Amino acid sequence: MSSQPASYTSNVSVNSQHVTRDFVPDGDLDKGVWRLMPRAAFDHNYTGKKRYPELKTEIASLWSEKYVYFAFWCSYREINVYKAEDAAKERWELWERDVVEVFINPQPEKANHYYEFEVAPNNQWLDLEIDLDKTPFNDAGWNSGFEHAVRVDEKRHLWMCEMRIPLSVMKAHIGPGTQWRGNFYRAEGIGPEEQRSLLAWSTVPARDEAFHNPSRFGIIRFVP
User: Fold this and answer.
1) What is the pTM of this model?
2) Do β-strands 13-18 and 57-63 pair in parallel, antiparallel, or remain unpaired?
3) Dihedrals φ, ψ of 193, to 5°?
């Protein structure tokens, strides 16, 4: 189990359940592997001071010996994406439209080094290796090869995202009892930030620290 440095100030946690058979993401979160998984839910902005009940977001996680999986259920008002672009190509500044984001740190003792994965409702994507001790701190050239799929249910006003991230690219290993640090975010809307809805699972106290505040990363527990 990784040691947890004193610099972490968040104790929110989510369990990631072991799965014995790997599967390729298809965006169908009604399938059996996700149906009974416990979910963590949030509808507050990144500071926790404002709530968006109409943007309720739920997350769940699974793990195997080769991959870590994440699922998002996102209630929405309307969908804003980059239109008429090739979703197979990585999209810089994807965070300027609707998106879900996973920040994960498989080595919590190295608080400033972690990985970022983003997926939009049209399945555009971005992955980054982050090291806050470097300039620039985000390596856009890093390619994880993570897989992802989305589905939009217009009747329920719900868009769903499924990610599969290979452990090998992060030089990570998981076993029962392993703990990582991480956070889950969601951005909704377009335009200036004050007009957008920016949500975080583990709250971040100040905008100038924004999403890249690893001291506020919560706990991801890997259970049997």
Assistant:
1) 0.94
2) parallel
3) -60, -30
